[in-house]
Design goal:
There is one protein chain. This protein has about 170 residues and is an all-alpha fold. The chain has a domain at about 20-140. The protein has nine helices and no strands. The protein has helices at about 5-20, 25-35, 40-50, 55-65, 70-80, 85-95, 100-110, 115-125, 125-140. α6 (about 85-95) packs antiparallel against α7 (about 100-110). The model is unreliable at about 10-20 and about 135-155 (pLDDT under 50).
């Protein structure tokens, strides 16, 4: 057979194989585990470079590194805030016992997306954790809000020092 006719199918096969190549999550996890301090950055960069596989990357990385799961979610949400609900969903599927912490971190970073984040988290969280995720949303507060029970605000609206009547304004 003429070699010229073999080149066309070979080129087509190689070109289509390159387009259909799957993202190798195991190599990403190995790289991230080898440098746990920088694992969130490594995973976030993988999401930036491979947006088509962002959800698979998040789920695999969180499942493989439970101690860094919340930091990974924070890093990924910073680079891909538009898919916040799906990122949280996949992270919780990767580490279901960390549903409350993952949701709290996501809501703290993206308060504008809190309703969608909480809804996605409740949908996939274990039944015993759903109440802890939903409770702050029902009371009108946000997960992670340090001032939920009332008390003094973090920064007062007026100065806390008394005003001295003997002071003269520089405008006079």
């Amino acid at each position: 057979m003429n070699s010229k006719y073999l080149l066309v199918p070979a080129a087509f096969f190689l070109g289509s194989a390159g387009l259909e190549a799957q993202f190798n999550t195991s190599s990403l996890v190995i790289n991230a585990r080898s440098d746990p301090k920088n694992a969130p950055s490594i995973v976030a960069m993988a999401v930036v470079e491979n947006p088509k596989y962002a959800l698979v990357i998040v789920r695999s990385a969180v499942a493989a590194m439970p101690t860094r799961a919340v930091d990974i979610v924070r890093a990924v949400l910073r680079v891909d805030p538009n898919d916040a609900a799906e990122i949280v969903r996949q992270a919780i599927l990767g580490q279901p016992r960390l549903a409350v912490e993952i949701t709290a971190a996501a809501v703290a970073i993206l308060p504008d997306h809190s309703a969608a984040i909480v809804k996605a988290a409740i949908a996939v969280a274990p039944a015993d954790l759903r109440g802890a995720i939903a409770a702050p949303a029902e009371t009108g507060g946000e997960i992670g809000n340090e001032n939920v029970s009332g008390g003094t605000p973090v920064s007062p609206a007026f100065p806390s020092q008394p005003v001295d009547a003997g002071l003269i304004s520089p405008a006079t």
